[in-house]
Design brief:
Blueprint lengths: L8 H10 L18 E10 L2 E10 L6 E7 L7 H12 L3 E4 L12 H13 L2 H12 L7 E11 L1 H12 L5 E5 L15 E7 L7 H13 L4 E6 L10 H9 L7 H18 L2
Parallel strand pairs: 3-4, 3-5, 5-6, 6-7, 7-8
Antiparallel strand pairs: 1-2, 2-4
Helix pairs in contact: 1-3
Length: 275
């Protein structure tokens, strides 16, 4: 599935079904995070608009921690995105979940989500501006290593994460979980490493798009790893997708094995890039 310049009603429905945030992943439950994780809201201003991102970290060492930024689904800065940030903090990273819409805004329906996400599809530099504004907040924290930053994203966030890899030169790496691959931005020949976690049976990311992505990465000499998880369709990391798929006859479903495998692949990727 390619990202169009405008969000059509069909695409809106697709994202609604494929990226539902109404249920939390077991990996993302509070029970899976230790009590030593501290969280707080960080507020700042970009071009006259207030933003409220979310940070999570363990205050257990004087040594600065590698940073992982989380780009949320198009619903905004939901508990799901914050939960992923807490998970990352539990792994020993300084995590920052990005407020993309301002004021920590979240929405619960595809129409509003489409209106908020559309500018980032039409004018990708808008996403870069918001991302850079959030990244600058890391400098406020002496326990965060600004020289070691990675980015992860899911669905909408996965596509935006790949766009950051295409444009940034100071990131250590980027991980996209079942995100769109081709976004209209050509990659620079930089040292940002990429990990793509894709469902092998994902009909929304066809073989032609995968081939085009790989060709683009190879031409730019980007260091990337493309993982296809067997028997996995779109939104394989989200437990809510199975119920939604059955209800609306959509080819989406949760795959616990692929969810856990992709998370472990991310951890191995971080261990390598943060050496």
């Amino acid at each position: 599935m390619k990202i169009p310049k405008m969000l059509t009603p069909v695409l809106i429905l697709l994202f609604y079904f494929a990226c539902s945030e109404n249920k939390k992943s077991p990996e993302n439950s509070s029970d899976s995070v230790s009590k030593g994780v501290k969280t707080e809201e960080v507020t700042y201003n970009i071009n006259g608009k207030n933003y409220k991102s979310f940070v999570a970290y363990k205050d257990d060492s004087d040594q600065p921690k590698p940073v992982v930024m989380v780009i949320p689904e198009w619903w905004g800065l939901t508990d799901y995105a914050k939960g992923r940030a807490k998970q990352l903090a539990d792994l020993g990273y300084f995590a920052l979940a990005v407020d993309f819409y301002g004021e920590g805004k979240t929405v619960d329906n595809p129409t509003d989500a489409g209106k908020l996400a559309e500018p980032f599809y039409k004018i990708p530099v808008n996403a870069k501006t918001v991302f850079d504004g959030a990244k600058a907040q890391i400098l406020k924290y002496p326990n965060a290593d600004y020289g070691k930053i990675a980015v992860i994203g899911y669905c909408f966030g996965g596509a935006q994460a790949l766009n950051m890899a295409r444009q940034e030169s100071d990131l250590k790496g980027v991980v996209s979980f079942h995100g769109n691959l081709m976004t209209g931005i050509k990659p620079k020949n930089n040292k940002v490493k990429i990990l793509v976690c894709n469902g092998a049976e994902d009909s929304f990311v066809p073989a032609e798009e995968i081939a085009a992505f790989k060709k683009q990465m190879d031409s730019a000499k980007v260091s990337y790893t493309f993982n296809n998880y067997p028997n996995s369709v779109h939104s394989f990391t989200n437990p809510a997708s199975t119920e939604m798929g059955k209800k609306f006859k959509m080819p989406i479903a949760y795959n616990k094995e692929a969810d856990e495998k992709s998370w472990n692949d991310m951890k191995a990727f971080f261990a390598e890039i943060f050496k």
